Amino acid sequence: MFEKKFYExxxxxxxxxxxxxxxxxxxxxxxPQEKKWERNxxxxxxxxKIMKEIEKNPEMTLTTQLHFKxxxxxxxxxxxxxxxxxxxxxxxxxxxxxxxxxxLVERIIKLSELNEGVIDVEELENIxxxxxxxxxxxxxxxxxxxxxxxxxxxxxxxxxYKNSEHLMLYLYSKKSNILYxxxxxxxxxxxxxxxxxxxSLYGFFLLSGYRFNVKKLRCEHYGQPNIEQGMKWxxxxxxxxxxxxxxxxxxxxxxxxxxxxxxxxxxxxxGVCYATGNYFIKDEKKAADxxxxxxxxxxxxxxxxxxxxxxxxxxxxxYLGEKISVNICMDPDYGEIFNMTMKIRxxxxxxxxxxxxxxxxxxxxxxYILAQMYERGTGITKDMNHAVxxxxxAADEGWExxxxxxxxxxxxxxxxxxxxxx
Length: 422
What we know:
Blueprint (H helix, E strand, L loop, with lengths): L1 H12 L6 H11 L5 H12 L2 H7 L5 H15 L3 H33 L8 H10 L4 H4 L6 H15 L4 H6 L10 H13 L8 H8 L1 E4 L4 E4 L5 H17 L3 H9 L7 H14 L7 H10 L3 H5 L3 H14 L5 E8 L3 E8 L5 H13 L3 H13 L7 H13 L3 H9 L1 H7 L6
Antiparallel strand pairs: 1-2, 3-4
Helix pairs in contact: 1-6, 2-3, 3-6, 4-6, 5-6, 12-13, 15-16, 18-19, 19-20, 20-21, 21-22
């Protein structure tokens, strides 16, 4: 029973057991009722680098086992039997985990070397489901790119969709032991192999604290958001795709859509970080480049309409020279994950462009602001007739300030003969 629980500790927390303080805490969490010497013996062997020896040989030589047992007896004065038990627990638990990892690496290599014949999709799915438990195996998953392409070709012709889209979600499983740097290493290899996947998605998992529940096939809250790492990830892949001028792959990355993650939000958040200097070096030109992507119909096509409206409207208002609060909420039950304030240089021409685009998506406030711009001639040619039309449109949409304006100016509108539907 003890060995089974210790194996589960390693399997479920390999990403953090390399930290002695966290490992010690896990020992007490998993074995609160065990005798103190048992926990201390396991921790002592941990500090004696028993994991490194097991990684060299999961079964460990008898000579090495004897060395660790003698060290334990010398340190704690425990019996031969108890010293053997502590060493065996490590070998039978961590050794088992290492053997499973090595076996999975072999399965990946074997599958990647298939040149022809029917590909076992269940085997492929099982690999993707489990590869995030074993870092060494995860680092080899890029070898399956050609296999994934073959499977995708078949699925697309037969069923009209790509099977790899849901397989890639397994890489963000709740049971993942993979660190940020390891994800980055593998996805750079995917990119170099021109693999067609969503290079932004891991960034949003970091931003939101979501993970993928393989059994329920849905995203769920798992831990605290990591805004800094999330933005760092999004910036890296945005910049590298731009640098390579690979517009096709960039647009391909944008086309993946889920109810939780929207592409216009990526561009808005990146732009805000560039504009404010939060998380990375301030660069107004890069901010403008990010926001310009939001004007791409292709991008907003793969964004929730409400999110697209909000993003375009926020940028338009920022270009008016206003101090703007930017808030992104991934889940109403979880709250905001992105909250910043920004103020940028006024640019009425760009303000008009973004607000007009926001109107296309149904922003009542943007209609009202455009009406003010036409009324005053700020940034565009003054046109009272069009201003009134826009005030009326905003009022029809329920914007209270527009209703008040029409009421206050009703006599003037009638006197000047300006068009209004009232």
